[in-house]
Amino acid sequence: MRGLTNKQDAVRRALAREFITMVFRGENNKLSGIKEYADRFGVGAGTVQGALADLKAAGAVSLKACGAQGTYIESADRSRLLEMCEYDIFIGLLPLDSSLCVKGMATGIFEAFTEYRLPIHILFARGSRNRAGILLREKCDFVVMSLCAYSYMHKNARDERRDLCSIGTISGYPSEHVFITKRDAPFSMAETQVAYDAFSYDQIAIMESLGKQHNRYGECLGVQLPELVRRGEVESALVERKSLGCADDFDVHPIEHLPAQMQRDLGESVVVVRGSDHNLSDLLSLVLTSGLVCQVQREILEEKRIVTY
Prior knowledge:
Layout: H1 7-25, H2 34-41, H3 45-57, E1 61-65, E2 71-76, H4 78-85, E3 90-94, H5 100-115, E4 120-124, H6 128-136, E5 142-146, H7 147-156, H8 158-161, E6 164-172, E7 177-182, E8 194-195, H9 201-209, H10 225-230, E9 236-240, H11 241-244, E10 250-254, H12 260-266, E11 268-274, H13 278-288, H14 292-301
Parallel strand pairs: 3-4, 3-5, 8-9
Antiparallel strand pairs: 1-2, 5-11, 6-11, 7-9, 7-10
């Protein structure tokens, strides 16, 4: 991204990012007053006027003054306005794409960004707790986790919740969690030690709900859990069934007695962003919560279209 040379550059970029969301929404294209912008950005009125003049000179927007009614965006060149936003490629971080559910979600997100001609790079990382940390370190623009994980984070994880917020649900989420053991190994909810991924808020919440959050295995890597069971290094593991793949080596034990609300929340995905960047939050909310992601995911699951991202 090009470095900002002065305050006017910064204001021009901020205005462009606000205007692009207004243009995409196609409604209420009325601008705030010069003084309001100046107060918001902590600059003088002349700086705001200069930034608006830059946007007009670049052909990004055409403004229409309507006297006491205010000033409106009369027309906009979306491509040029996006250039003035100075967004680099957007980076979204999703769960590991080991299930068709996540692949459908990724395809839907890719198509939603493509519809708005916005560049998107989709990456995958294990564990909602891990993804939240990456977002806080500003290594991506948004992450996806289950509604259950988001709710747990906001109730229990002080560091992660301080600047992260949800912009809404977008699709289904892999939610069939089960316990696995080696073939014919004994299993008891009360006595069997269960390994789980401590970087997954979903799994932490499930284990706490079942009163099994304390075990002797410590923090395990989610992707290693089946292999640890296969080698006999752990008695049992908590895994998401659709990401397990072939289960021929295991006995699969369904989880019983989870609260109904938790079961519902495990199956819904939410997009989480840094709450301090309001313009980016507004833009991502517009792009991702229209229902397109859910529709595409459903068609992928029904094998009506191919995976592309």
